[in-house]
Amino acid sequence: MEVDGNSKKEPIDVLALFPEVRSIKDANLRDAVIATWQELWSMSQWVRVQDVPTGPEVPYPTIPHNQAVIAMSLAIADVFESVHGVTVDRDCLVAAAVLQDASKPIEYAPSANGGFSIAPLGRMYPHGFWAAHVALKHGIPDSVVHILLTHASQSPTFPESLEGKILYYADQLDVIAIHKDRWRKQIFISK
Ligand SMILES: [Fe+2]
What does pLDDT average to in each consecutive run of 10 residues of the chain (191 residues)? Predict the structure, then answer.
């Protein structure tokens, strides 16, 4: 589906917003992460990326949320590696953390009263679908795209990889910091 971007929109500087992208060792992956964010931003109706919200239930800008999730994910990876000797694929983790919410600029749209609404693509597709779609188009590997599709709490499945699980829990923890604790314990028996 074609979506016209806002012509007054400010350009997006992915490296300035997410300097961790520079740490991605695979140059093709690094370039593809930047290109994916740029393409999704070009499709959006927003003027300033700083105005894009975390979500309808979380009235907080998505960029600092995204930055916090990247930083927490890398801090968890540091502890896993230094304390337990558990290896984490940093390229995969950084790429997924930077792109996890890159589709929010087209899932939400600014409204005239200064608020926002769910954009048509946000109503028609699950959160993360378009980030995954554009990422695949730019050659981003399945290991990263899998995380983009499974990182949301609404996803029917958990991420399978360690990198995906780190991101999933860091993302949910950050929502506690910027909004509230939405977790509830359910009593059930499951293997
Ligand atoms: Fe997300």
Answer: 67 97 98 98 96 93 98 98 98 98 98 93 97 98 98 92 98 94 80 69
**What would you report as the CA-atom Rg of the chain, rounded to the nearest whole angstrom?**
16
Could you say which architecture CATH assigns to the domain 14-178?
Answer: Orthogonal Bundle (1.10)
DSSP assignment string, 59-86: EEEHHHHHHHHHHHHHHHHHHHHHHH--
- CB atoms < 10 A from the CB of 115, how many? 10
pTM for the model stands at 0.94
- Please give all residues whose CB falls under 5 A of ion ligand 1, grouped by chain where several chains appear: 100-101
Ligand 1 centroid to residue 179 C-alpha, Å: 14
Report the separation in Å between the CA atom of 23 and the middle of ligand 1, taken as the mean of its atom positions.
22
